[in-house]
């Protein structure tokens, strides 16, 4: 290494610039690899005055790294740095300032201060950005310069360059975060610049504006809390009550500046930088109305695809949010399922979130998921899962018994850690309802012979001691065994043995008096002073003698008092007082430099402080400035967002138009810098024309008073989508007509008619697709009530020929419901005889039209009495059905004889979804929670149609309405009979006659909505086939595709 350094020194002292440049590249390369190059400092610093720009840049890179370590040598070159601050090249000026601020010697503070002041007025935004960085360094070196630095910050905050904004706000946060008055005049400008600032600048600005909003605007959550307030103040005097009511009558109107911040940060949820998305999410959480917070959940779930460090932070924040707002993340429940590749820290956080999201509706799914987690090889995770099951059992009373039984089953697990954790959790659950569980306590007493984990042994002994009167035969025997092994036990277990002895002495002294005295004697001479102290205390309390005081009379009450059940709470319960996304929130302790969020003010401070002086505006106003700002926004937003943003309520749009124009005008006077000129200033006429159109639309919307933002936004989207579809159609018509000028007019007319009909049909058919549909989420089946036109794609000539003469009124008459091709005999368990205390129930789908209603699926339930007594009054009790779902129940059965059986029919309208219908199957004495989840194939009715009709309907259900997949299987599995048998086994479909041997067609319609479901199996060369499903109900189609594919693939 030393030899290498000598060579580099010689190259640096060479007369040739090429040798010096080569040496500097190698040195910077060494620094990049983490090697120490400090001894080359004298040789490098000589070249600081080099005429060659490239060498100069690299020298400054080196000096920034080592100036702090080699301060004396760096001070020798200080005059060179001062000269470089006047260099014509902006990079050299900026580098010189960086080196100067890196020499951390108090003696040069005045020079640094002067350099920062000059740089803050530099024409180059890059130099001004470095001046903002230098402010923080100077402040940490000499805090007494604070007042002068605040002046520079105030000046730089007025800067219109996006390059400077993030850096100066960082300096503001470091030097004077409490000087909110500096932000007032720049607030709107910062909101409008936000989308164009570099990513880390965005993070800093968003955090600062979150704090600002909490001090300047009133709480948007007041409306939600109104009811609670009313309840709290019920007993106030009439006058006070009237005063409060008057205050509440004033409707909450959001400050336009508050709305500006929320609206301008929304596009950043799509940022590629996870920190930006997290910053926007915390802003929405802390300052937006509760009804609008929901939009952040999708973006946060998207971040879970990032690396594990990002996942960890995001999951911590979701865990905190999900305690207060379960509904936000419930649709994404499956995103929090644990993967085998997740590290333990991620697994435990996901468990935490799943616990927070657990409710009566999804608990059965979650418990099935937890069952697999318990078998995990990661023992720490398996133990955490058992604790999670315990928490679910305490939170949701309906599943307490189920969880307890599941945990008891785990006691026979081979893994000691799982057993130990189960014992600890069972102990907590039994504390809540001890009277019913004598059997479990007996079972756990037997485990003392095999369990060695001290916490588990101690828990069992504590349980037996608490319930010693319920297990009078077992408790003394357990004490006898423990007395034998007392000396070899862990200290934790010894303490519980002493407690058990004391409790038995008080309740069953006849059997245990001598045993307890023996244990007390062993404890008296134990090595641990805690155990010796406990022994002395217990002896005085329970063994009466002349010295024992008044307390011994109450010994039984002291030892066998009713203990409060433990409260199983989330570790994230109290974290919400820290700002989300901060280090303090992650560590759950206040970190150095953490700035607390203030509470909302009761009355909003004067909003006029954010208005910018009109004189300044008049001086700087130029149309070019306005054009530039608008274009920047236009580039960033997608079309749909632009349309949403252009429509706001009247109060918002009016006041914002003032504020926004003010900011845009302020932007207009661009800096003299060459680097700030951008192509966005030169725009085509068509762009500006379209923008004028946008503005008119916004104005038109602003006139409609009294309508909420969301309503206006929806209408605007509808209008724009409709106009899009018309323009698309007219465009396609022009193309087709120009492409076929030789055609006769009658042909053109017929094509036009066909296309109009196709368009109308498409509008009707595609109506349900206006919702965002996730294939994992089968809850979104209800059709959308508002019709929205979709742009119709240009039709191919062959398809137009097929569609000519299409008559919608006659097409439906050809398609009629048929009898099922095949009825599977498979039954499903509704109620197991063990769970139903002798009553067993099975159900199956007979694939017949339901007699109770044409939208219902027919289900036959067979009830069996497996007991030796009569079961009376069997009926369906309470129903928990998802919204829109209906159920027709069977008539109550008076009695069912022993070993008797009866079959009844019910009808359920599943609304074309595979959601579970939950209800209670009741007898005279008991009620059992049961549920029916239909296979997707049973939501269909088979239909008959001709091949021509099939093709016609298929032609209208393309694009988004078509899903397909490739199947690979042995040729013998692709014979017509095998394909028919496999398809009808899975789904209740009818067979459509086919003119081609290699294509098999099946048709059905959904029971609820009557939407067509067309299934095609097209055999290809070799051993492959293509499975195609065409339907408006894309979600059902996708699920059916997933179920058919494995069935057709297997032999």
TrEMBL record:
Function comment: Subunit of non-clathrin- and clathrin-associated adaptor protein complex 3 (AP-3) that plays a role in protein sorting in the late-Golgi/trans-Golgi network (TGN) and/or endosomes. The AP complexes mediate both the recruitment of clathrin to membranes and the recognition of sorting signals within the cytosolic tails of transmembrane cargo molecules. AP-3 appears to be involved in the sorting of a subset of transmembrane proteins targeted to lysosomes and lysosome-related organelles.
Domain AP-3 complex subunit beta C-terminal: 768-915
Ranges of compositional bias, category Acidic residues: 639-678, 731-747
Biased composition (Basic and acidic residues): 228-249, 627-638, 679-696, 706-722, 748-769
Gene: AP3B1
Segments of this protein annotated with the region Disordered: 228-253, 626-771
Pfam families named among the record's database cross-references: Adaptin_N, AP3B1_C, AP3B1_C_2, SEEEED
Family according to the record: Belongs to the adaptor complexes large subunit family.
Name of the molecule in the record: AP-3 complex subunit beta
Record's subcellular location: Cytoplasmic vesicle, Clathrin-coated vesicle membrane; Golgi apparatus
Organism, as annotated: Mustela putorius furo (European domestic ferret)
Gene Ontology cellular-component terms listed: AP-3 adaptor complex; clathrin adaptor complex; clathrin-coated vesicle membrane; Golgi apparatus
InterPro entries reported in the protein's UniProt record: AP3_beta, AP3B1/2_C, AP3B1_Ser, AP3B_C, AP_beta, ARM-like, ARM-type_fold, B-adaptin_app_sub_C
Topology term for the membrane: Peripheral membrane protein
Record's keyword terms, sorted: Cytoplasmic vesicle, Golgi apparatus, Membrane, Phosphoprotein, Protein transport, Transport
GO annotation terms (biological process): intracellular protein transport; vesicle-mediated transport
Domain Beta-adaptin appendage C-terminal subdomain: 939-1049
